[in-house]
Design brief:
single chain; 95 residues; mainly alpha; two-stranded antiparallel ribbon; 5 helices; 2 strands; Pyridoxal-phosphate dependent enzyme; lyase; threonine deaminase activity; Ser/Thr_deHydtase_PyrdxlP-BS
């Protein structure tokens, strides 16, 4: 992985909103595919999805002027839930 990519990952402000989730074995799938299958449990996030990571990280990088204008999510699913939670934590108006 390029060093610049690793740096961006390490600087992402995702753990201010997201929790570290476990990697769990998936015995049924492992047997079915004759391989070791592990599942990253992002369903344990506060909004039951990994989408909080991207939404929070992007909103945390907005300027104060941009935050004052608010944000809009064109979603009724996991992304909207992540955006709503991030907006609440950052004090940003969201639709």
């Amino acid at each position: 992985m390029p060093e610049a990519t690793v740096k961006k990952i390490l600087q992402a402000r995702v753990y201010e909103a997201a929790i570290e989730t476990p990697i769990s074995p998936a015995p049924f799938l492992s047997r079915r595919f004759n391989n070791q299958i592990l599942i990253k449990r992002e369903d344990l996030q506060p909004v039951y999805s990994f989408k909080i990571r991207g939404a929070y990280n992007k909103m945390a990088q907005l300027s104060e002027e941009q935050k004052a204008r608010g944000v809009i999510a064109a979603s009724a699913g996991n992304h909207a839930q992540g955006l709503a939670m991030a907006a609440k934590q950052l004090g940003v108006k969201a639709v």
